[in-house]
Amino acid sequence: MKNEMWWTVVLAATAVLGTLATACMMPFVAVATVAAATLRRGQAVVAVTGAWAANQLLGFGLLGYPLDGHALGWGVALGAASLAMVPLVARIADGSALRLVLAFVTAFTGYELLLFGFALVAGGRETFTSAIVAALFANEATWFVVLAALQVIATRGAPRLFGLAPIVRLG
Fold first, then answer.
1. How far is Cα of residue 162 from the mean position of the Cα atoms in its chain?
2. Which residues does 51 contact at the CB level (< 8 Å), separation at least 6?
3. CA-to-CA distance for 148 and 165, rounded, in angstroms?
4. Which of 82, 101, 136, 150 could form a disulfide bond with 28, CB atoms 3.0-4.6 angstroms apart?
5. Each residue of 13-40: pLDDT tens digit?
6. Which among 62-66, 122-126, 150-154 has the top mean pLDDT?
């Protein structure tokens, strides 16, 4: 339990720092995938919710997101779509690298489909061009690799603090 708390904090904090570096390209899918693959379901939900809430606070408080119904609705949709990926990833990921990558790709696809469904109702379909989705995928994939590597380094480098098993069996 204590080990999960530390990993939850590191996972959420790393993702939030990434938000500051990439403005509105928060790696929600990467966070959901790594959280679901490394934490119990309830703790994964806490990690994803914490990262989402911090992202929204930074966005509306520091980065100047507009305080209107459209922006707030999209914020809720991003959080809901992220949380929806947690049980999906948990069902797919089994500790093998192949299943973890499959879980990530499946989560990215599901997340984008949910958001596209929201865009059909709320507006914003223009943000689903192939170029934009490809850029989002590249950002998410980069963060997925960084967060997965960070988890392996943390569990191997500080097992007393992050005593959970590495995200991927390495041998």
1. 19
2. 11, 12, 15, 16, 26, 28, 31
3. 12
4. 82
5. 877 787 777 766 789 999 999 999 989 9
6. 122-126
Angle at 163 between CA 18 and CA 48, to 5 degrees: 35
* Confidence (pLDDT) at 24: 65
Within 10 Å of residue 118's Cβ, how many Cβ atoms? 18
Q: How far apart are CA 93 and CA 41, in angstroms?
A: 13
Paired tokens of 72: 């707030």
